[in-house]
Design brief:
Two copies of one chain form a homodimer. The termini of chain A are far apart. Chain A has a four-stranded antiparallel beta sheet with strand order 1-2-4-3, covered by helices on one side. Chain A has 96 residues and is of the alpha+beta class. Chain A has helices at residues 9-15, 38-55, 82-95; strands at 23-25, 28-34, 60-64, 67-72. The interface between A and B is medium-sized, with 16 and 16 residues. Strand 3 (60-64) of chain A pairs antiparallel with strand 3 of chain B.
Chain lengths: 96, 96
Amino acid sequence: MAKPTPLTDDEIQRRLPEIEGWCIDEGKLFKEYKFKDFIEAFGFMTRAAIIAQAMDHHPEWFNVYNKVRIHLTTHSAGGISEHDFELAQRLNKLAR
Amino acid sequence: MAKPTPLTDDEIQRRLPEIEGWCIDEGKLFKEYKFKDFIEAFGFMTRAAIIAQAMDHHPEWFNVYNKVRIHLTTHSAGGISEHDFELAQRLNKLAR
């Protein structure tokens, strides 16, 4: 896999509409998902963990009860990259 | 189950040695666990999630790659209760 390159602010803003509900927080992609209860929230995290591991691209995420807050960035790129958009899209699909 | 009551600061300090590696942060029990990699960290979280759900006592937790940071408090008690010490003890046992 080629070394990921950071997207420019313009590219990020232009592409944000592709990933519903995500915004920029602390220079990273951010979204809070809300589920019915802890079982649903952790079920989502479990499926997401398997995808993240397969992509070798891991989220920074926080959970309390039915809420899951996720930040995505690409450390090796020093910013938000294509990988973050791809993972965000897959997480949105999972959460549907 | 009886409504949990908060422990006093004295009780908390006296009992902290029972739960290795835990301290007080923002008025909650806190510990950071560090694992070999994401698979080990999320494996721990999965086992912990099942225990937390069975206790109906859920952590506030953050994960990035091989690190898991956990805060425990009992909202219905308005502070740290017996339940938090019990869960902390079980998490330590899991992580061994």
